[in-house]
């Protein structure tokens, strides 16, 4: 059985194997999924029926390679950009491979945050890039390390999740964004700004996107996964006019066009003015969950343990001190009634033993508190 993710059929096995009673249910800090109760299933069904009736002959037919035009236009209006600069795709994940394929040549270097979103690391590696992890501090990457790495080799791309990063929850400060934008301009590398959590701010003020600071060198990626429904697989990329035609052509040659059916449903939902109220509802649902996990960490963690204090998003990260045997802890956390994703995948060198990613949005505060208590007990147990 995987210790990272429990599937429902594995669950009973887990209970038997560990001789646990049902009241000892393991607490799953595994995937960063939206809460199921947050999916507006009935409204989306209505939107589907309505768009199928109105636009069925368009969205069930082959269409344009850049995606369903009314949704592209809606996105362009939201972001105050031209429709030619908007490319819709089957989720934002897909754009990692598009960026890698379109922009990277053999032997190119890609900078990423260290730790970073594991699937982005994989996508860049698969494309043959030399991936360089730049240590992530609590306000963005370590600038001295960034500039040292730049002096060694100018990357082709810098991939960043600047708002409520996966896996740490860290938001990059405006000061660091401006400095990185200056460096991008001076050295000519692109910034891939992956922003799926940006709208999910529960406290504090929004920080200006790279896209606003240096639009000519940013490929901005976002999707409807975290703010509406991940099952739809509708994402989009906004980029400079100089390079977007290549991406549009890439889309056509990859799959003719992305799925117009789900794009139509998303469009109908947005056209009705429902997206912003839904995001507001999500903020109200997730805010107490973030406050709850931070309070539980303050209350139960041993004093030598450190963690991030995000103001939004899906994740809080815990950093274990060297006095804790992190490898043994991660391997055996299930014995304490907790399951987490292994920390190693988030690090370019797979050294994630001292790192725990804790997604909090799917759980109510009582469950999170119990989970944190169990993790704290495990940390005490594995302190050398
Ligand atoms: C930083 C980041 N980028 C991209 C994705 C993938 O999103 P999508 O569902 O749009 O493919 C995720 C999903 O968790 C994510 O955390």
Indicate the topology.
Blueprint: H1 8-17, E1 27-29, H2 41-59, H3 69-78, E2 86-89, H4 93-103, E3 109-114, H5 118-126, E4 130-137, E5 140-141, H6 143-152, E6 157-160, H7 174-187, E7 190-194, H8 210-213, E8 218-223, E9 235-238, H9 244-255, H10 260-271, H11 275-300, E10 306-307, E11 315-319, H12 326-332, E12 338-340, E13 355-359, H13 365-381
Parallel strand pairs: 1-12, 3-4, 3-6, 6-7, 7-8
Antiparallel strand pairs: 2-9, 4-5, 8-9, 10-11, 11-13
Helix pairs in contact: 2-10, 4-5, 11-13
Compose a concise summary of this entry:
42% of the residues lie in helices and 15% in strands. With 384 residues, it is α/β, with parallel strands linked by helices. The chain starts with 7 loop residues before the first helix and ends with a helix.
Structural class: alpha/beta
User: Percent helix among the residues?
Assistant: 40-55%
Number of helices: 13
Shape: globular
Q: Could you tell me the number of beta strands?
A: 13
The strand line-up of the biggest sheet is 2-9-8-7-6-3-4-5
* Estimated radius of gyration: 21 Å
Order of helices and strands: HEHHEHEHEEHEHEHEEHHHEEHEEH
- List the uncertain runs: 1-23
- Ligands present: pyridoxal-5'-phosphate
């Amino acid at each position: 059985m995987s210790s990272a993710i429990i599937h429902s059929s594995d669950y009973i096995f887990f209970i038997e194997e560990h001789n646990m009673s049902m009241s000892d249910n393991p607490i799953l800090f595994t995937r960063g999924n939206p809460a199921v109760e947050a999916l507006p299933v009935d409204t989306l069904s209505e939107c589907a029926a309505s768009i199928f009736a109105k636009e069925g002959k368009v969205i069930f037919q082959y269409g344009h390679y850049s995606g369903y035009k009314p949704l592209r236009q809606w996105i362009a209006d939201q972001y105050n950009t031209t429709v030619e600069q908007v490319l819709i795709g089957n989720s934002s994940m897909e754009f990692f491979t598009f960026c890698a394929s379109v922009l990277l040549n053999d032997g190119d270097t890609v900078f990423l945050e260290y730790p970073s979103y594991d699937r982005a690391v994989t996508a860049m590696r698969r494309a043959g890039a030399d991936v360089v992890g730049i240590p992530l501090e609590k306000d963005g990457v370590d600038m001295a390390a960034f500039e040292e790495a730049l002096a060694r080799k100018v990357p082709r791309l810098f991939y960043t999740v600047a708002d409520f990063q996966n896996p740490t929850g860290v938001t990059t400060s405006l000061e660091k964004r401006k400095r990185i934008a200056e460096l991008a301009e001076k050295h000519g590398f692109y910034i891939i700004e992956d922003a799926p959590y940006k709208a999910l701010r529960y406290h504090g003020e929004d920080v200006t996107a790279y896209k606003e600071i240096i639009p000519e060198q940013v490929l901005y990626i976002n999707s409807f996964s975290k703010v509406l429904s991940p099952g739809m697989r509708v994402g989009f990329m906004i980029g400079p006019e100089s390079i977007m035609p290549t991406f549009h052509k890439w889309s056509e040659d990859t799959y003719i066009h992305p799925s117009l059916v789900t794009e139509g449903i998303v469009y109908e939902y947005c056209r009705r003015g429902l997206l912003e109220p839904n995001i507001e509802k999500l903020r109200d649902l997730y805010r107490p969950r973030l406050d709850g996990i931070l309070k539980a960490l303050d209350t139960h963690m041993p004093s030598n343990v450190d963690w991030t204090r995000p103001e939004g998003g899906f994740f809080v990260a815990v950093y274990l001190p060297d006095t804790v045997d992190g490898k043994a802890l991660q391997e055996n956390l299930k014995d304490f009634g907790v399951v987490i994703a292994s920390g190693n995948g988030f690090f370019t060198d797979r050294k994630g033993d001292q790192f725990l990613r804790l997604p909090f949005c799917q759980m109510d505060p009582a469950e999170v508190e119990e989970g944190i208590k169990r993790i704290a007990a495990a940390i005490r147990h594995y302190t050398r």
